[in-house]
Amino acid sequence: MQESVLIYYNGHKNILEFMKNPFQSHLPKINLHTHQIVNGGQIQVLNVFAQDLPLNEKKQLFSTGLHPWHIGKVNPEACFQAIELAAKQKNMLAIGECGLDRSISTEFLLQVSHFKKQIEIAEKYQKPLIIHCVRAYSDLMQLKKETKSNVPWLIHGYNGNLETTKNLVRHGFYFSAGEKLLSNESKHAVFLAIPTDRLFLETDDREISIESVYFLAIQVLKIDLNKLAKMIFNNFKILFGDDRLALNNYLT
Q1: CA-based end-to-end distance of the chain
Q2: Of 15, 13, 18, 14, nearest to 3 (Cα)?
Q3: Angle (nearest 5°) at CA 61 between 155 and 126
Q4: Are 6 and 15 in contact, with CB atoms under 8 Å apart?
Q5: pLDDT single digits (tens) 82-139
Q6: Cα separation of 130 and 1, whole Å?
Q7: Distance CA 26, CA 101 (A)
Q8: Tens digit of pLDDT for each residue in 153-203?
């Protein structure tokens, strides 16, 4: 039996026809962090670097922040001002990606300083943080504790070990996983340690579809696609709120 679902993607109407089976879902797939927008029935949160603002497309969901890789290459104050202006837009869902990276040469204390500024902006506008973190998870947890931040902290492209994951869970973090974690069988225990009500999926800058990432996830979780799609869709609504999502601009 076929069923039709009418969805709106960035204001454009698309009709999806699909057969009911474990590999198809009536809910849109959600790509929480991507550097490139593709056509199709999905919700995509575009990552926009702060120095590339403003984003003129008013119906495109996006996040923006000063990436630690760009510190020293851009004017930070101009970036922070641009982030604040963007934070007033309804389609701007989160601050980031921003964060900490101990694998680069940029002075770590400077990274912390710029990250703290973005935490302040996130608190001011009550936006979640989308975080880039490399070899700095203990620093990240300490900062979350020190700042007493009450907005959600979400680590994108998560690829930590099992012990780190358990510690991050205890500290209330959210996680967005992609191909790197899901395609590595030795990391499946890490993925399974993430609470399902704090889980998102993403493509980041990789040449992979969000459909493929969802398929990898259902294989690890051993659930059908409808269940996964519903779970992540609900997480998305809870984290960002229907009022922030302006969801009716995308779905009907």
Answers
A1: 21
A2: 18
A3: 60
A4: yes
A5: 999 999 999 999 999 999 999 999 999 999 999 999 999 999 999 999 999 999 999 9
A6: 40
A7: 38
A8: 999 999 999 999 999 999 999 999 999 999 999 999 999 999 999 999 999
**Is the separation of the CB atoms in 110 and 13 below 8 Å?**
no
Q: Please, which residues have CB within 8 angstroms of residue 23's CB and are 6 or more apart in sequence?
A: 215, 224, 225
Residue 31 pLDDT exceeds 90? yes
Instruction: List the structure tokens of 77.
Output: 């104050």
- What ranges make up the beta strands (E) of the chain? 2-9, 12-19, 29-34, 42-49, 62-65, 92-101, 129-134, 153-155, 174-177, 199-201
**Domains assigned to the chain:** 27-245 (3.20.20.140)
Nearest to 199 by CA among 217, 180, 224: 217
Looking at residue 58, its pLDDT comes to 83
Q: How far apart are CA 95 and CA 49, in angstroms?
A: 10
Q: Is the Cα dihedral 157, 160, 165, 167 positive or negative?
A: negative
Type and span of the H or E element at 215: helix 210-221
Q: How is residue 28 annotated by DSSP?
A: P
CA angle 108–111–115, rounded 5-degree value: 140
Cβ proximity of 176 and 32 under 8 Å: yes
* Residue 134 amino acid letter: V
Q: CA 20 to CA 17: how far, in whole Å?
A: 10
- What is the pLDDT at residue 25? 66
C-alpha span between 114 and 85 (Å, rounded): 17
Give the pTM: 0.88
- Coil/strand/helix, residue 241: coil
